[in-house]
Amino acid sequence: MSEAALDEVSVLSSIYCGAGEFQLLQQSAEDGVLLQINICVERERRLDVSLSFHLHPHYPSRPPDISVSSTGLSRSRCHNIRQKLLEQAATLPPEPMVHQLVEFLQECVELTEDCKGDQDGVEQTVGQEQWISVLLLDHIRSRNCYIGLLECWTQQLQLTGMLLLGRSILVILQGAKPDIKKFCRLLKTVKVDVDSSGKKCKERMMKVLIETPLSSSCGYGLKGFVVKNYQSLSELTASFQELHLTELYQQMLPSLRDWQHAGSHGD
């Protein structure tokens, strides 16, 4: 990372110093910096907006990747705001720009337009069929960092999801199939966790248990990105039932049991 980028991170943490305003999710020479800024925009009503910035190793010569999420704005509105921020970033000189982009959001974007939220938990992308996938993760040791990255990626890729933590670590994802594929690719190419020796590592052992087009009668319980712990198989089953995904669960259960059986006999 450039010295200018590291200095900017320090400055941002000082500017956005309120409770929960600034969070540094990841920092490495190889992958760059991932940070999140949560702000409140006051217009006709209060709107809490979460902005995630991925500063690449070549930043600020290369503009940051940006994701936008808000419980008070529809998914399409968040997507439109993200596009405006990316367009604005492309017009700025190659120097630290995150604070300018946050100010641009607060001053120039009409956030109050279309503030209906996501009543159904998912907003279908025009021309793209909605899919649902269940991923099996190998381990989560650096919990806060790992979960922060998963949540950031779902926001960035306009996915909804749930992380289930128990004997098996499962991620349920819902959204456009290409975006789910991008999520899986990020898991295997970005250092998201640490290994048993404490060294940063990628999720190379991730397995897709099932992926299928989303039925109109299921899956609409997913909203945003939720983390849930379970203690038993019955609690895991209940979690899928609450999401109206019982049939999907039954289809993936043999693959899950095969993995658990192999794990119990492995090293």
Automatic annotation (TrEMBL):
Source species: Anabas testudineus (Climbing perch)
GO biological process: cellular response to stress; positive regulation of hypoxia-inducible factor-1alpha signaling pathway; positive regulation of protein sumoylation; regulation of gene expression
Protein localization: Cytoplasm; Nucleus
Principal localisation: cytoplasm
Name of the protein this chain belongs to: RWD domain-containing protein 3
Keywords recorded for this protein, A-Z: Cytoplasm, Nucleus
Chain's role: Enhancer of SUMO conjugation. Increases SUMO conjugation to proteins by promoting the: binding of E1 and E2 enzymes, thioester linkage between SUMO and ube2i/ubc9 and transfer of SUMO to specific target proteins which include hif1a, pias, nfkbia, nr3c1 and top1. Has no effect on ubiquitination.
Domain RWD: 7-112
UniProt superkingdom: Eukaryota
InterPro entries assigned: RWD_dom, RWDD3, UBQ-conjugating_enzyme/RWD
